[in-house]
Amino acid sequence: MTGPATGEDLAVRITGLHKAFGAKSVLSGIDLEIRRGEFFALLGPSGTGKTTLLRILAGLEVPDAGTVLAARRRTTVYQEPRLIPARRVLANVTLGLPPAARDSGRRALAEVGLEGYDRAWPATLSGGEAQRVALARALVRDPEVLLLDEPFAALDALTRLQMQELVAELCARHRPAVVLVTHDVDEAVRLADRVVVLRDGALAVDQRIDLPHPRDRNSPSFVGHRRLFLSHLGVVPDSPHFASTQT
Ligand SMILES: Nc1ncnc2c1ncn2[C@@H]1O[C@H](COP(=O)(O)OP(=O)(O)OP(=O)(O)O)[C@@H](O)[C@H]1O
């Protein structure tokens, strides 16, 4: 069953979650609680069920067994911006909302660095700008749970870093619970309060990251966390760089 989260502090509570596609078991007995305002990252090899878990949280997929309780206002940002080409930027941001939402739509655009883009057409935007619009569209809905499904994966490396900074800033200001699905270990360690590795249908590591923001990717603690997650992902950190920076 999927329903509203109980308990004042929790944004998500998952108990005994199972999901299979045909004969293939994808999630087997997941228990997970995510607090309000917590930035939670889910790492895992390709095909382990990260997106399936996110889709279950979004209410787009139904579990075979278990209980999924989640705060009511949930919004997803995907790898691709999913804008409607025939609608201008502001109309995309406020899609489905009453006309009075236009002011908050403009404010959300300003928050993502796109002040004055209200009347632009999606086709005229760069990939990074389009993804900023997708973030504004999520923001204007004031989500209690923000679901991020590899939102930076299609961007070039520099834009990705800029977007990570933007998301860190927005989430620190608005404090939704965030569930970030990513392959990028550094992204998870840069952004999250807590990182979980999903392997073979189960949660393999559940690690808090208490480093202050902004986080220095070269600090010994950052490097230590990176090594921990890489080892749980089955990547052996044996390069000279790793050997010289490990803690
Ligand atoms: N609707 C579906 N029908 C059948 N199989 C599915 C369906 N959705 C997902 N799967 C399968 O479930 C498994 C987990 O998929 P999922 O997309 O959740 O993994 P993932 O960890 O997000 O992978 P990636 O990191 O590559 O995006 C895969 O083997 C996938 O093929």
From TrEMBL:
Gene3D superfamilies assigned to the protein according to its UniProt record, in alphabetical order: P-loop containing nucleotide triphosphate hydrolases
Coiled-coil regions listed: none
PROSITE patterns, A to Z: ABC_TRANSPORTER_1, ABC_TRANSPORTER_2
Pfam families the record matches: ABC_tran (PF00005)
Superkingdom, natural source: Bacteria
GO molecular function: ATP binding; ATP hydrolysis activity
Domain ABC transporter residue range list: 12-225
InterPro entries reported in the protein's UniProt record: AAA+_ATPase, ABC_transporter-like_ATP-bd, ABC_transporter-like_CS, ABC_transporter_ATP-bind, P-loop_NTPase
Keyword annotations from UniProtKB, A to Z: ATP-binding, Cell membrane, Membrane, Nucleotide-binding, Translocase, Transport
Name of this chain's protein: ABC transporter ATP-binding protein
